[in-house]
Write a structure and sequence with these properties.
Shape: elongated
Region (Disordered): 21-54, 99-130, 151-205
Biased composition (Polar residues): 178-195
Organism: Lentinula lateritia
Number of helices: 8
Protein name: SMP domain-containing protein
Length: 205
């Protein structure tokens, strides 16, 4: 985040996110305190204020760093792929489970984003049934996590990809391929390669 573009509105948001994540007021040296100091110099901010989602991600990341330095690490699953599991609803958790189950071809295992979301949603189920997170964000997160699980399982057992390749749409296949290309030198033999092969067969038929 460019603190020179931070105004009082953005600084208050960062302070709020970080305060909530920590459970106490962010200390001197934290991103929130730095943002407030900078905002005092230019209260209205810069010409292009940062994306609110970026502010939240930066604040939560800084809160995790502070807690880690103090020996009280925040659970790493608080925010995954832009999804705040501490506020996820049961409906959103079901959507994640459905999408990841569909991509994998079997129920997502413990440690998956779907399983973590269900556990988190169960802690605050009262009065939260609607979907507030963009369903597309949920779908992309589920497919990305399914790819991660598939890659990890394959690397452990040298087995073929576990994603049900015949059920992944073409547009999601492209996203999957892009994700794997960023994290791997080659997509040869990966989940996206298997999906691409299945898509090619479908298109020929």
């Amino acid at each position: 985040i460019d603190l020179n573009s931070i105004g009082e509105v953005e600084a208050r948001k960062i302070m709020s996110y970080e305060h909530k994540a920590l459970g106490y007021r962010p200390p001197p040296g934290s991103l929130a305190s730095q943002a407030q100091a900078e905002a005092a110099k230019h209260p209205k901010g810069g010409p292009s204020p940062p994306d609110p989602a970026l502010l939240k991600k930066a604040a939560l990341s800084d809160a995790a760093k502070i807690e880690s330095e103090r020996g009280h690490p925040i659970p790493k699953s608080t925010v995954v792929d832009g999804i705040d599991l501490s506020n996820i609803t049961e409906a959103e958790a079901r959507k994640l489970m459905s999408e990841e189950h569909k991509a994998l071809g079997y129920r997502p295992p413990p440690g998956s984003i779907a399983a973590s979301a269900q556990a988190a949603a169960a802690k605050h189920s009262e009065g939260k049934a609607e979907i507030k997170i963009d369903p597309q964000v949920l779908t992309e997160a589920a497919i990305k996590d399914a790819a991660r699980i598939s890659i990890e399982r394959r690397s452990r057992s040298n087995s073929p990809p576990q994603i049900d390749v015949n059920k992944v749409p073409v547009d999601e296949q492209r996203k999957l391929q892009s994700l794997e290309t960023k994290s791997l030198d080659s997509t040869a033999g990966t989940a996206s390669a298997a999906v691409q092969s299945a898509v090619d067969k479908r298109e020929k038929n």
